[in-house]
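R.M. (postdoc): so does anyone remember the format we settled on? I'll just put the structure tokens first.
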């Protein structure tokens, strides 16, 4: 069976869903291919054991590590992609992140575009995803004269105490920019209270994710169609290799060849690179669009860790993800290199804690620990190493990754512990691994980026500054793949903003 459309978008996550929204009013016939299905609305959506212990919504496929050992990645194949389970922390990259930055472990390279190029699209992205926040409180906040679309989320009482204590200590906690949809057309009489959010799918649709905030709007247009459970096998080119001539997809137990004028690949940094490598042919022997040999290379996913801080004060908070700390983003008083970013996590419960720690802290049961826990997420920049890469082996994805620039992350962790122990009544600190499938190493793929980098030089980049392939003129890659560095903030808003920018470019200069 052969079918023709104007535009194919592969993937419905932050990049794919957003660019579908941007292109929907073009009148062009758009087909979105999503390898997963909608996450069902069910009571298990908010069940910690089902979500974090049994990995109910996580893929069951296995990938290989650098030693060819199988592992289960924290990857989600569903409509909306990984955004259905993200925490909706929607940060702009800092203005300095677009420039060359010297780190303890090496150099974070200059981007081929500036903050100014993305600035209007950041604002558009914040409006589209209903970001709550307040400008100017964060000492590293990028410049914008426009306020956030919505006011910051209020701190619950225990979190407000922590904020006040940290301010007294001398830090500058700021309202976390969070994408939360306001109550619209609700049928219930009472207000909705945010609770199970970070790491959980949200059946109430208050979480601003790609499916709820972009894809649904795109699908209101008759020219936009979504196929679920549609797995792309390969991208096919014309005889000269200069354009994609067709997409080979398995849909409803049938292999279908779909012709399209434009193909937008938005499968995530790992799977987009893997599909390009899988689509190698005689004109592209190293992988489609890979004359530069950068496809799959420079894989980054941040130096991340989650930490539980226990204090004598009970924490009755339901939604704790309301503040962040960037005082150590560029440096600290005793370390000249960037350390990174700190933000709150969703409130942990005894199931999550017991899944992490076989032995409770002295004097604490898991239940008591959960009632006294305050949860933090720490992010530091990992650097683009060409030897950290995505490959294929025996048709499986292989992730080759060696840590770099780790010392600043250790220092950031110690800074947070010191601040908490000297500003409040915190005395115990524990790592929290269960947030990402019990493995904060290569299985933690929520911040994946960097595998199909963009740039002005076709010898050192696979894409141009509008994410269009240097080698295959009707191919765009719009997800975290295009990053040339990871910064130290969540990548989702930058992916969304770039999708809006590329969508504008396609409408104005290509269609």
């Amino acid at each position: 069976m052969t079918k023709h459309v104007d535009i194919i978008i592969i993937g419905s996550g932050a990049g794919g869903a957003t660019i579908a929204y941007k292109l929907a009013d073009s009148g062009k016939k758009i087909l979105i291919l999503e390898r997963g299905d909608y996450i069902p609305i069910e009571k298990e959506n908010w069940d910690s054991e089902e979500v974090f212990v049994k990995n109910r919504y996580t893929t069951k496929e296995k990938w290989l590590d650098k030693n060819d050992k199988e592992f289960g990645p924290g990857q989600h194949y569903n409509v909306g992609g990984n955004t259905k389970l993200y925490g909706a922390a929607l940060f702009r990259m800092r203005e300095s992140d677009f420039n060359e930055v010297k780190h303890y472990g090496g150099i974070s390279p200059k981007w081929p575009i500036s903050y100014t190029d993305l600035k209007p699209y950041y604002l558009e992205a914040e409006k589209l995803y209903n970001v709550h926040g307040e400008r100017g409180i964060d000492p590293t906040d990028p410049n914008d004269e426009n306020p956030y679309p919505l006011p910051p989320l209020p701190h619950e009482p225990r979190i407000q105490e922590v904020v006040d204590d940290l301010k007294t200590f001398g830090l500058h906690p700021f309202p976390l920019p969070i994408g939360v949809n306001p109550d619209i057309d609700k049928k219930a009489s009472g207000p909705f209270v945010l609770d199970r959010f970070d790491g959980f799918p949200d059946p109430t649709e208050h979480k601003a994710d790609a499916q709820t905030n972009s894809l649904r709007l795109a699908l209101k247009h008759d020219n936009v169609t979504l196929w679920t459970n549609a797995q792309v096998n390969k991208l096919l080119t014309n005889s000269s290799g200069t354009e994609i001539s067709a997409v080979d997809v398995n849909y409803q137990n049938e292999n279908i060849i779909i012709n399209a004028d434009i193909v937008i690949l938005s499968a995530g940094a790992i799977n987009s690179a893997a599909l390009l490598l899988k689509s190698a042919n005689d004109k592209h022997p190293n992988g489609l669009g890979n004359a530069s040999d950068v496809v799959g290379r420079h894989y980054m996913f941040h130096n991340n860790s989650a930490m539980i801080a226990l204090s004598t004060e009970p924490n009755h908070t339901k939604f704790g993800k309301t503040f962040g700390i960037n005082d150590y983003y560029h440096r600290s008083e005793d370390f000249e290199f960037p350390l990174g970013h700190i933000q709150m996590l969703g409130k942990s419960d005894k199931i999550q804690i017991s899944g992490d720690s076989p032995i409770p802290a002295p004097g604490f049961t898991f239940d008591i620990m959960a009632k006294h826990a305050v949860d933090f997420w720490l992010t530091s920049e990992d650097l683009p190493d060409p030897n950290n890469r995505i490959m294929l082996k025996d048709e499986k994805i292989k992730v080759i990754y060696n840590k770099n620039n780790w010392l600043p992350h250790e220092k950031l962790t110690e800074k947070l512990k010191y601040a908490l122990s000297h500003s409040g009544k915190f005395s115990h600190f524990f790592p929290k691994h269960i947030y990402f499938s019990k493995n904060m190493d290569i299985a933690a793929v929520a911040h994946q980026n960097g595998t199909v980098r963009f740039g002005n030089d076709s010898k050192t980049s696979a894409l141009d500054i509008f994410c269009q392939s240097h080698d295959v003129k009707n191919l765009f890659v719009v997800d975290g793949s295009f990053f040339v560095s990871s910064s130290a903030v969540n990548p989702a808003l930058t992916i969304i903003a770039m999708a809006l920018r590329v969508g504008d470019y396609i409408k104005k200069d290509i269609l």
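R.M.: ...and that's the designed sequence above, right after the tokens. Also worth knowing: The chain has a mean pLDDT of 92. The chain has ten helices and 21 strands.
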